[in-house]
Amino acid sequence: NRSHNLTVENSTLTLGDLFSAAGLPAPNIYQLAPPKFPNYMITWGINSQLGGFLASTPSLQPYDTLEFSDDVSWTKGAHQFSFGLDYINLRAFATNYLNSQGAFDFDGSRTGLGLADYLVGETSNSNGFTQAAPVPSDQHQNVFALYAQDAWKITPRVTITLGLRWDPFFGHSDPEGQVVSISIPDLMANVHSTKFPTAPAGYLFQGDPGGPTNNKYTGNALDKWSPRIGVAWDPEGNGRMSVRAGFGIFYDFPNFSYDQFGFEEPYGGSVTVPGDGCTTTCLSDPWANFSFNDQSGVTHTDVDPFPQYVGTGPKNAAYLPGALVFSYPQSIKPTYVMQYNLSVEKQVGAGWVLSLSYLGNQQRHLWLNNEANPGLQDGCPSFLPGFVCPVPTNGRRLFNYPWAQCGTGTLASCYGETLLLDEGGTGYYNGLLVSARHPFAKHFTSTTNFTWSHCISDNATTTLGLFLVTDEVPYNRHADRGNCPSVDTHDIFNQTVVAETPHFESRAMETLLGHWRASVSAIVQSGIDLSGFGTEPSLLLDYAGDGNGLQQRPNLVGPPYCAHQGRTCWLNPASFTAPSGVPTFYLTPATLGSTAPFGNLANNSLFGPGSIIVNTALSRLFQITEGQQVEFRWEVFNLPNHANLYLPSGLGAALLPTFGQPTPGSVTGLGALAQTTNDPRIMQFALKYSF
């Protein structure tokens, strides 16, 4: 776990420079050096941690946003009409140089220690050297909406609001026309592009039947309408009670982060060469164990494929084995949400307002990641019923048809990780909110809220190609259906009280006891699900045997929680095992057997500890003269000193000794926010003099 970094500002440093500084011959690598960036910092490093690599490169990411909107309101009689439009034009002119100058990986596969591998010059057996073409991201996106609404006061006690919004979806476009689509039926039927026949089966370009048009990654979806209706009713006619209900459809569209297509062939492309077989020549000649066929069918061995054959566009590109592939369907269905609510509010007596509210929604066409090209072990994968296995079946992935092969020697498919957008996800949310409010009268105010909610959905993604949220079971989107990640807290109780002592006629009493203000705030909530914090029990399922594992869940063989939950035990380690009894939590073809096992633990089904937080404050303002005053404050956080436990560790499933224990180290990334509830009792005093 030691790293060495060299930083150069306002210049470009190549691997050749590093080798020269170390007294080594220049490596056989074409340096796709990015242009020099004024005021940019370029950092190269050698990281000897597991999976670490040598490289870090800059990105050039200018963006433009142009927006125009206008809203008009017109009142006539009992009607209040509203009209509006919104237009947004987004443009990206980005280029990412990730791994463009090459990255060596030292993972301990040679000597048992990553740093030792680095010191002796032995790269990773599986991921010895990686290089990628510069990734273009020259994209445009138009967002447009038009709406009309009428708030109609039918009677003094009833108001109805009706509205309609047009939300057309315009597909993201590339003004350079560097767009490609993958057709699985064409791949299986050995159909090649008519524009570029040398591309692998299934690749479709502009001008191909069923391929992209108008420089767009996916087609437009213009017939999208969003009706809204709302009702407000005063049953008693005296303003002391209200009933409100509403329903609406709301469309949601992705931003540029969904479009990862610049990484894929033929406009981009990445090559990974295993170090196994090149012995001590890995650093000086990482291509010694690599071969591929160009567009003319000529076999090249020990030849750097950059820059002539990778990232050159479909006319001249040599498609290399195991390419990373992304694709939208050409007919798109945007995500939309149907929202509905009902609330009843009642004033009781002179100072209390009680309310009961129900909120719900249904989500349709959530966008998911589907790994369309999982690895074959021995025979057909069981998750594709009725699928006819391609012949031969000695490739490691599903798309191993003879016509889908690249390179020479053992058959190797042109298709590697193939992540296709699946628009079929669904979800729903139901919530009940009970509230009691007392405004500041009679020297105190009080607000009480209790919320019960539940959210369930398929495994939606925020970025096409983000492996962490890929469907665990290929071609089965509902296998990952579960509690919505990181937001499914079922029970939340809030109480806030602020009280102030009254004014006393006696000057002595007023000086001693008057105008003291005390406040108490309490939050009591159940635990959050473990999915979004890196703490849910998980392992990696390596479909292809290439080290690119996807998240897998273990088998649940007993009660998941400890009998006596507390500081030393929250999840029961004995209740979690690897599928099929495999004694490792990084699964490979050698340990999988004939089929790929999938754990039975439901997705996002486990919850961490709840929390109780009570904070108090006492303050008083002492007026000395007209222009001078002193304020005293005494605050206590976590008054009962309640132990609000961290989330339990799920790393490595049941392998680590801390598994299942509330552990500070288990909270990483966004989960670090959860640490704010773990403070002990803290007390502070303050005096402030104002003049």
Summarize the structure.
Helix content is 4%, strand content 40%. It has 691 residues and is mostly beta strands.
- Beta-strand portion reads 35-45%
Structural class: mainly beta
Q: Which sheet architecture does the biggest sheet show?
A: 18 strands, mixed
Distance between the termini: 56 Å
Low-confidence stretches: 1-10, 36-56, 377-395, 543-548, 581-596, 666-676
Number of strands: 35
The rough form would be described as globular
Count of helical regions: 5
Whole-angstrom Rg: 31 Å
Q: Give the averaged pLDDT, no decimals.
A: 78
What does this protein structure show overall?
The chain has 691 residues and is mainly β. The protein is built from 5 helices and 35 strands. The protein has helices at residues 15-21, 114-120, 184-188, 507-513, 589-592; strands at 3-9, 41-47, 53-54, 59-60, 63-76, 79-96, 103-105, 129-132, 135-155, 158-166, 181-182, 203-204, 225-233, 241-252, 270-273, 291-293, 299-301, 323-327, 335-348, 352-371, 405-406, 412-413, 415-441, 444-457, 482-483, 491-500, 516-525, 539-541, 550-552, 555-556, 576-577, 586-587, 611-625, 628-637, 682-690. The strands form 8 sheets. The protein has an 18-stranded mixed sheet that branches. It has a 4-stranded antiparallel sheet with strand order 3-7-8-15, with no helix packed on it.
Question: What topology emerges from the helices and strands here?
Answer:
Layout: E1 3-9, H1 15-21, E2 41-47, E3 53-54, E4 59-60, E5 63-76, E6 79-96, E7 103-105, H2 114-120, E8 129-132, E9 135-155, E10 158-166, E11 181-182, H3 184-188, E12 203-204, E13 225-233, E14 241-252, E15 270-273, E16 291-293, E17 299-301, E18 323-327, E19 335-348, E20 352-371, E21 405-406, E22 412-413, E23 415-441, E24 444-457, E25 482-483, E26 491-500, H4 507-513, E27 516-525, E28 539-541, E29 550-552, E30 555-556, E31 576-577, E32 586-587, H5 589-592, E33 611-625, E34 628-637, E35 682-690
Parallel strand pairs: 18-23, 28-32
Antiparallel strand pairs: 1-2, 3-7, 4-6, 5-6, 6-9, 7-8, 8-15, 9-10, 10-13, 11-12, 13-14, 14-19, 16-17, 19-20, 20-23, 21-22, 23-24, 24-25, 24-26, 26-27, 27-33, 28-29, 30-31, 33-34, 34-35
